[in-house]
């Protein structure tokens, strides 16, 4: 990993055990990756949200923000704090966050319900302003989705899931060029997974191919 602000992390929002790990059959008979197999919160997130297309500006801005806050932490931590994040950042409305001042930075840094990291807080504000600027070029959603790859991985184990790609590196570079921060290639690949731009559900998982973007494989 060559980014000082983006520690290496698994692409899926959990930590994989060291041994080769394929899909796990749950008590309900459904196959899921290990990170979504036991924790009820992660299981529900996996079953209902992760990997489903997000094509609206506010939804994408929220996910870019949360992926940045996740860097160096577990996704479970961010998911549990998501209601507090949404309250603290006014529902991740870009127009509102873009108007934040130093008083808001101080408020956020004093909010124990979120991840209190000055650089990440400021990045969220910077990125809100960048989102607004992108409207003149068609908007954040069209911009992000223009980097969708022509093919998606077909991992059978957690170890086969990539953590970055040529497309995520290109998206990272392009977003940086538009003034975004905390959008490294690994973070952007995690975003691409979360919003359905790639399908890294393990082959055999009951969720693979359900996004409508990619056929089951």
From TrEMBL:
Zn(2+) binds at residue 201. SUPFAM superfamilies: DNA-glycosylase (SSF48150). Keywords: Metal-binding, Zinc. Residues 1-24 are annotated as: Disordered. Residues 7-23 have a biased composition (Low complexity). GO terms for biological process: base-excision repair. One of its GO terms (molecular function) is metal ion binding. This is DNA-3-methyladenine glycosylase I. It comes from Murinocardiopsis flavida.
């Amino acid at each position: 990993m060559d980014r000082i602000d983006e520690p290496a992390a698994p692409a899926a929002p959990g930590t994989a055990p060291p041994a080769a790990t394929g899909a796990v059959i749950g008590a309900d008979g459904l196959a899921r990756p290990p990170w979504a197999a036991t924790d009820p919160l992660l299981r529900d997130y996996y079953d209902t949200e992760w990997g489903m297309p997000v094509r609206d500006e506010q939804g994408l801005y929220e996910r870019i923000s949360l992926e940045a806050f996740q860097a160096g932490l577990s996704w479970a931590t961010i998911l549990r704090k998501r209601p507090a994040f949404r309250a603290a950042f006014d529902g991740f409305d870009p127009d509102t966050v873009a108007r934040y001042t130093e008083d808001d930075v101080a408020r956020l840094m004093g909010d124990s319900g979120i991840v209190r990291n000055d650089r990440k807080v400021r990045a969220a504000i910077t990125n809100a302003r960048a989102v607004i600027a992108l409207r003149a070029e068609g908007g954040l959603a069209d911009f992000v989705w223009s980097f969708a790859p022509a093919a998606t991985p077909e991992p059978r184990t957690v170890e086969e899931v990539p953590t970055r790609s040529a497309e995520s590196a290109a998206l990272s570079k392009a977003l940086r060029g538009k003034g975004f921060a905390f959008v490294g290639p690994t973070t952007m690949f995690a975003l691409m997974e979360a919003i359905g731009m790639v399908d890294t559900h393990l082959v055999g998982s009951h969720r693979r191919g359900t996004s409508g973007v990619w056929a089951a494989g």
